[in-house]
Amino acid sequence: MLGILLIYFIGKSFYKLAEEYNKHKWGVAIIGVIAYYVGTFISGIAIALFYELILSENVDNLNDLVLSFMSIPFGLLACWGLNTLLKKQWKSKRSRTVSMETLDGEFLKE
Fold first, then answer.
1. How wide is the angle at C-alpha 37 spanned by C-alphas 81 and 26, nearest 5°?
2. Is 36:7 a contact under the CB 8 Å cutoff?
3. CB 52 within 8 A of CB 58
4. Within 10 Å of residue 11's Cβ, how many Cβ atoms?
């Protein structure tokens, strides 16, 4: 149930971001959810390697639920990073477009 709620809110935030910058809404929402799963997958591998190599414990002794809860923050961090990156990129692109339109408009007035 927690996973479904996370997917919903992640998709919703990326959907609103795409709507704000006039991008493909569903595509960006799906990319946001994929970013969450990629972040949790990579962190799961990193946690397993940490347990095996540094702690010298067997990862099989670790409860799957605990491993899932440990990887959630990394998935959310991946979503936040992608959201920030897209927002910054789209904002700079929008400001360049607006400034060029403004310059053209001022040039035509003269």
1. 75
2. yes
3. yes
4. 20
Angle, vertex CA 102, rays to CA 96 and CA 103, nearest 5: 90
Which residues are CB-contacts of 41 (< 8 A; sequence separation ≥ 6)?
71
Taking only the tens place, the pLDDT of each residue in 57-94 is: 787 888 888 888 889 999 999 999 999 999 999 888 77
Helix (H, G, I), strand (E, B) or coil at 55: coil
Report whether 75 contacts 43 (CB < 8 A): yes
Burial 31-67 (b: 16+ CB within 10 A, else e): bbbebbeebbeebbeebeeebeeeeeeeeeeeeeeeb
